[in-house]
Amino acid sequence: MNVYDSEQIEKILAPLGYKIASSFEVADLIIVNTCAIREKAEQKVFSFLGRLAGLKRRKPDLIIGVGGCVAQQEGDKIMERMPHVDLVFGTHAILRLPYLIERIESERCSLVDVEMSEIIEEFGSVIELPLDRSDPKVTSFVTIMRGCDNFCTYCVVPYVRGRETSRFPESIVSEVRGLVKTGVREVTLLGQNVNSYGKKENLNSFPQLLARVNEIDGLFRIRFTTSHSKDLSDDLISAFKDLDKLCNHIHLPVQSGSNRILKRMNRKYNRELYLEKIDKLRNNCPDIAISSDIIVGFPGETRADFEETLNLIKQVEFDSLFAFKYSDRPNAPAARFADKITEQEKKDRLQTLLNLQEYFTARKNRVLVGSNELVLVEGLSKKKVDNDDAQSKYQCVQWTGRTETNKVVNFIQSEAAIPRDRILKGKIVNVKIEKAYLHSLLGKPALKGEQSYAA
Ligand code: SAH
Ligand code: SF4
Question: What pTM was computed for the model?
């Protein structure tokens, strides 16, 4: 979401003459877009801001702005801690940025704007102009709703992003169309709980929105995140079968395998319901990839609760997992819960869990060796490739992309398989997988007889 918001900031400041600078040293304006989801993310913000103090001393005209969730949460306390900061703007203040920056430019004052609003137009009307980039992107995020009404007890989002508000479907579709014109071939629709998209405002349902995006010519793939298990509907599950552009991957955070902990987290589903949804997804779409989020060491999590989480991982066999040590967040009710878990215990549990998941990730990747996978090419990989064939006068390059199931695939373009001038970025290529690593797969374009290009 911050990536998307940063792009909106880039667009909205373009009319003021600002464009992305090549380094901090040459910048006239530095915007730090912050995340407050975990304690570590917040600590990073303050250490980064601390490092900018020297630059500001050398360049007093430099404007430093802090936006995003930490800005929303801390407001003018940021100025007290970091007096070299000129502007603090909250998560709902992006559209007011040009006005705020112009005031700072002319009055050399410092400003704080952390006002929140529930007006949908304000959010939906964020300019839909594509960014003027020399190296256009193949994939893009599109925020379809902001805020959250779920109030999970560990989570800061409802306090720093406000109430759930959905954008109009027309605005979303038109933004995606604009992106496709610039070369984008895959969009990821973003919301904290996409299942409740449009419900409050009586707009399209989320599956209806997906169907509308699915009709956009020139778009190859659609993804979305995040889906909340309590609201994952049968219609959405069917969409994986019905919509040809919807990738067969779902990120379905479970957070814990213990019903007692799920209840204390206020997740509003239990282990049984979660497993039922997984079964439905797999019955409907047998090769769907499933990833999840897990928090270890939530207050009161016993060894037995943790074992239940490990057990659930064994039962589901996720393709990949994001696991986090629980951290207290300001305002979130769990910060006031007793029986906190020690840092060492959280660290140990996290390691045990990651080791277990590594086994499943590696196994799932290994199974793909020898198969052909359709890969949407995102660009050249940064890695240099040696040409194995010393006789060959052609250079090898390595491309990188993803399968529909969201696995990273790198492949070497060899002259025998692909004409030299062929630009693969933004194309779907049929790749024969030759090696599996933990975080990526390596392959070669399938031979002609195996259908080299899909698009
Ligand atoms: N809306 C999404 C989650 C967004 S936050 C959902 O409901 O699934 C992304 C992830 O950060 C969460 O899934 C959770 O695993 C983790 N997270 C959130 N608050 C946390 C906290 N206080 N400590 C540790 N991890 C946290
Ligand atoms: Fe946070 Fe829960 Fe909302 Fe996700 S659903 S953003 S975890 S409150």
Answer: 0.93
